[in-house]
Amino acid sequence: MTTRTEKQEDSMSTATTPTRAPHRDVPTGHKEGRVGAGLFDPRQLVKSLPDAFRKLDPRVMIKSPVMFVVLVGSVLTTVFSFKDPGDWFGWTISAWLWLTVIFANLAEAVAEGRGKAQADTLRKAKTDTVARRLVGDAEERVPGTELRVGDLVVCEAGDVIPGDGDVVEGVASVDESAITGESAPVIRESGGDRSAVTGGTKVLSDRIVIKITTKPGETFIDRMINLVEGAARQKTPNEIALNILLASLTIVFLLAVATLPPFADYAGTHLTMVVLIALLVCLIPTTIGALLSAIGIAGMDRLVQRNVLAMSGRAVEAAGDVSTLLLDKTGTITLGNRQAAEFVPVGGTTEADVADAAQLSSLADETPEGRSIVVLAKEKYGLRERHQGELVGAEWIEFTAQTRMSGVDVDGRRIRKGATASVIAWVGEQGGTVAADADRIAQRVSEAGGTPLLVAVDDEWGARVLGVIHLKDVVKDGMRERFGELRRMGIKTVMITGDNPLTAKAIAEEAGVDDFLAEATPEDKMALIKREQAGGKLVAMTGDGTNDAPALAQADVGVAMNTGTSAAKEAGNMVDLDSNPTKLIEIVEIGKQLLITRGALTTFSIANDVAKYFAIIPALFAVVYPGLNKLNIMGLSSPDSAILSAVIFNALIIIALVPLSLQGVRYRPVSADRLLRRNLTIYGLGGLIAPFIGIKLIDLLISLIPGL
Amino acid sequence: MGPVLAGVLQLLALIAALALAYIPLGNYMARVYSSDEHWRVEKWVYKGIGANPDTEMTWSAYLRGVLAFSAVGVLFLYLLMRLQGVLPGSLGFSSVNPAQSFNTAVSFVTNTNWQSYYGEQTMGHVVQTAGLAVQNFVSAAVGMAVAVALVRGFARSRTGELGNFWSDLVRGTLRILVPAAAIAAIVLVACGVIQNFSGIHEVGQFMGGSQQWNGGAVASQEAIKEIGTNGGGYFNANSAHPFENPTPFTNLFEIFLILVIPFALTRTFGVMVGSVKQGYAILATMFTIWLGFVALMMWTEFAHHGPALQAAGGAYEGKEVRFGVGVSSIFAVSTTLTSTGAVDSFHSSFTGLGGGIAMLGMMLGEIAPGGVGSGLYGMLVMAVIAVFIAGLMVGRTPEYLGKKIGTRDIKLAACYILITPALVLVFTGVSMALPTPPHSMLNAGAHGFSEVLYAFTSASNNNGSAFAGLNANTDWFNTMTGLAMLLGRFLPMVFVLALAGSLAEQKPVPVTAGTLRTEKPLFTGLLVGAIVIITGLTYFPALALGPLAEGLAS
User: Fold this and answer.
1) Of A419, A447, A474, which closes a domain?
2) What ipTM was reported for this prediction?
3) Residue A615, exposed/middle/buried by CB under 10 A (0-12, 13-18, 19+)?
4) Which residues of A are tagged catalytic?
5) Would you say A446 and A502 are in contact if contact means Cβ atoms under 8 Å apart?
6) How large is the C-alpha radius of gyration of chain B?
7) What parts of the sequence cross the membrane (chain B) (predicted)?
8) Most B CBs within 10 Å, among A255, A539, A678, to test the B interface
9) CB within 8 Å of chain A, chain B residues 462-521
């Protein structure tokens, strides 16, 4: 939303309502504060298997140090098994180590696979288009891939727009469903904030000339394809940091295992390489190492599923850290337009009279405000909506931006409704007087943050004002609760509006936001963002106009509306294809969920090791120090079975946690303390206990195999 | 009164004394490191060493100060010992051999005070007082200075400046350690610890035969030995020697001295970062671990199962009857959970599990409460690690004390936690793999392995206590433990100071309802858990083959 749009509405001169894709006011998939996630289909595992094998390439594996160690371990155990082909234990361990690596790759492949379907749809839109390039006045047909920045191309009804650009001439309706999935066409016109067009979308009517702004291969649709496929994915700062920590833990365990042979030899038992590698793989944080990249991809994917494109993973992470949300009033906090809330009679008339006159005079007003008057009259006063044809001999006066009034002349009555100043002037022209309380009531409505409209009539008793219509911003359902949730999450909300401070304050109070910025100019917005950032806060905002671009670039999370200008889309680090500003809240939740999932699985992974030691250490050393059998608290059946069970558990837990890593850990908007307590209990304590049970169960199964 | 009750009562008295000293001492130390004024005597020192105490230092300048000062210290001490034979006041002892001189010089400069020599048979008055005693003060002051630099890293923002090393060093010595040691020494003298420069006495033994005793400035050295968490005894028997530790009261008093500064530094930390609650959280973490270890140690020692019982007929083997089992357990835990290494009983004679508890205490990195300074910075680095792992679980990139834990910070913290495990495991592994070093072991089997593991654990963590039995005075052990001490002290300092510099440059993140509250008990529990689990996982195999194998045998 731009401040420009706000001001238009303010002056009640909304001759044309802005053209935009319809908002989905109720965010999809959002129930009880949970960020919904795509369902996990086990068949995806099978489908992704070939990709998982392809990822065994060491050059790919090295990116995850933990899994690289497992890969090396698998190769080594296999080599040792070949040397001693009769050793079933070595073969089994090798097989499970390979499975561990493949399961890890599978997790990543499944995560990537989910984006592939969307990428394919996008590719279809990108099919070779033929561009009609303007050379002077002549037109030539060239392939879309040969367009250069600055080229002018013509598109007419039925043409697919060959590349990203700005409309420089004409106006057209465009079908952008290939990108947004939204079938309603949007208007694109030269100049202003609706000039950006995207390659791959289709012109439905009229003719436009487009100036190409992006090189082929770097267009929005290309970037989208890369993003959803994960090809453009770079590790985020937090992911890198976590990888470092995991690598250092891996080194610690590598040392612990590598120094074990001399200790064991001294104790009088010899440890085979297979056993040492099994121990190492069990200890290093394979669970999180295997799932880390899948978690990151799935986080981006959750955004894509909500039709948000994050241009960098950094932005998704930053979203979790946001402590100030700048929300535009219109469209985010309030419904797009003001609505009639009340009819106030003046000078001895009744409410019903006012309602009747207001309804009649608004029948010719097609603006949303006008429609809302008719609706209010029907809902509150039971006045059936009359149609313009029913009233014989009526002369309808349409609302225009110039007169700022609408009305009807019927049965000798001339009824008008409109902006205060216009109606007062009209009454004066008809030789009538304005009741003193009309002005007072209008004033009161203004002070309460509403917009007053006057209803006047000129009949046999002369021209006079009948009453005041109170137009007010209607705060969307549930916004107050959402802001309350945000407050509990530690996020401050600031409402941005072009309204005067009085109006802004009233709406801010009604909506329950923490703060507001009234009569906001782009400079004010920028200053506010900088001020918050100076205090160490991370700021998120949405915007769509060219004048929003600097603020979008300055904000830590800048979500550009897809309906916005290319400058805005370029400046922000996310694009919302639905152009729904409320989505900012969901984006924050997705960012948090991403971080929580990482932390939870890391904690789980490390806590798991305790049980593995209790399985493996007695198995290795009880031969020489029988006392160590006291550590075999799980009562595992044999040393081989104990080691094998730990290795198998270690591999299976990866597969078991794939759905969680893709869907993300459940997030509730509660305080940090409660979140931590909850997650520590589930993933910390659970991580300690679960493997004891898991390893014991696997051991029971193994001990059932005859001959062992 | 039974021995268990006696032990518990002494424990309660100790806790009460520590609690009384906590706030005044902690606040005083915060003032020392924050004040703008210089004492006259300090100005003389600055003039003497040519340092400007008012310039702010970046982390690398601070580190250069630490390393240069310590290098000079090692060199001076080495030469002093090598030249002892020609120095006056040496009680006729000859010069110390190169390997042992290196080992001892490093040992005292790194605040380890590992002793591969018999004090009363090797070091004369000059080396003891002008060399070893001086390092007892300044090595402790260096540790405190580094801790304070890290605290400043948390407290400051948008600057790379961490204070002035020379000023921190001199103030730590003159305003904290010297006065505290003076008071403590007077108390010790009053209680019967000797303080003289007498020569060697020939003393007739109770059972016939004779023995040589020498005097020395024992009380003054004893005081700083404990207060500076040094641990290097004047005599070989350390605090089990009646000249160093004559009565049950001095025994308890010495434990108090060991613990008082490391615990109080958490208050200093809280005051300096502007939230005493954060200091309490760190204190609670340290105290929980310390108390847990004391309880565990008392339990295993009073139960006295293990080979010691069979070998010597009770848990008293290796323990002073003057002190008893209970308070010896407290001493053992306190000395190994700090970087002290003083002993009033012999850890190798503890039960198998008891010896393991002492080792585990050091393996935790000596952070509960740890050495003077080193305990605090070690614990803060662990807090950074814990915050990083668990902090993610509140859905924000992790932050501690208003500082975001970014890639660079975690890299430095990760390097820090790698060092000591690497030193302990690699040195022990190599020693066990080579043919000769195991000959130093006195015992065979798991206990013999424990001797070697203990030696390198103690050296790498700058503890200094020994698991008696091992003959560490060989070229191999003198050199290797020397290297372990050197790397175990200064490599972590490099990473701590770099971390401090990185933190100081950041701008602070404001606290909101979405911030992980690090002053709450939940976080303390988390931190304790993270420390115990991460350390436990690192050393479990090694411990299983040493103390666990021994302790679980019966």
Assistant:
1) A474
2) 0.92
3) buried
4) 328
5) yes
6) 22
7) 61-79, 130-155, 176-197, 252-273, 280-299, 323-343, 350-368, 374-394, 415-434, 480-501, 522-544
8) A255
9) 507-510, 512-517, 520
Structure tokens at A242: 């976590």
Query: How confident is the model at residue B503, as a pLDDT?
Result: 95
A405 and A313, same domain (yes or no): no
Using a CB-CB distance cutoff of 8 angstroms, which residues of chain A are in contact with residue B448? 266
User: What DSSP state is assigned to residue B314?
Assistant: S
Binding-site members of A for Mg(2+) are 544, 548
Say whether both A329 and A360 belong to one domain: no
Token pair for A166? 């700005």
Q: Looking at CA atoms only, how far is residue B101 from chain A in angstroms?
A: 29
The pTM of the full predicted model, rounded to 2 decimals, is 0.86
Contact A319, A588 (CB under 8 A): yes
Running DSSP on this structure, what letter comes out for residue A209? E
Counted domains in chain A? 3
CB-based contact A209:A170 (threshold 8 Å): yes
Please tell me which of the candidates B385, B388, B533 has its beta carbon nearest to residue A610.
B533
User: Taking CB atoms and an 8 Å cutoff, what residues of chain A touch B425?
Assistant: 255-256, 258-259
Tell me whether residue A515 is in a domain: yes
Tell me the C-alpha distance between A496 and A515, whole Å: 9
pLDDT along chain A (708 residues), means of 10: 37 35 37 43 81 88 92 96 90 96 93 77 72 86 84 88 86 81 77 78 87 82 74 77 93 95 93 94 94 88 83 82 85 76 85 87 81 85 74 80 83 87 88 82 82 88 88 82 83 85 85 88 87 88 79 89 78 83 84 92 94 93 92 92 96 94 86 89 94 96 79
Touching B: A residues 453-492, CB under 8 Å: 487-492
Domain boundary among A569, A589, A609: A589
Locate B83 and state its tokens.
């030249």
The CATH number assigned to the domain holding A180 equals 2.70.150.10
CATH number (domain holding residue A467): 3.40.1110.10
B533 contacts on A by Cβ (under 8 Å): 606-607, 609-610
Contact status of A415 with chain B (Cβ, < 8 Å)? no
Q: Does A431 touch chain B (CB under 8 A)?
A: no
Residue A168 lies in a domain: yes
Q: In this complex, do A628 and B418 lie within 8 Å of one another by their Cβ atoms? A: no
Q: Is A579 left (phi over 0), alpha (psi -120 to 50) or beta?
A: left
CA distance B406 to B403: 9
Pick among B382, B392, B440 to test the A interface (most A CBs inside 10 A): B392
In the prediction, which pLDDT does B313 show? 45
Taking the CA of residue A291 and the nearest CA in chain B, the distance in Å comes to 15
Question: What is d(CA B108, CA B232) in angstroms, rounded to the nearest whole number?
Answer: 8
In a domain, A506, yes or no: yes
Do residue A375 and residue A456 come from a single domain?
A: yes
Is A675 an interface residue toward B (CB < 8 Å)?
yes
Residues pairing with A334 in the sheet:
A330, A475
Tokens of B468: 């008696």
Does any CB of chain A come closer than 8 Å to the CB of residue B407?
Answer: yes
Q: Are A192 and A547 in contact (CB under 8 A)?
A: no
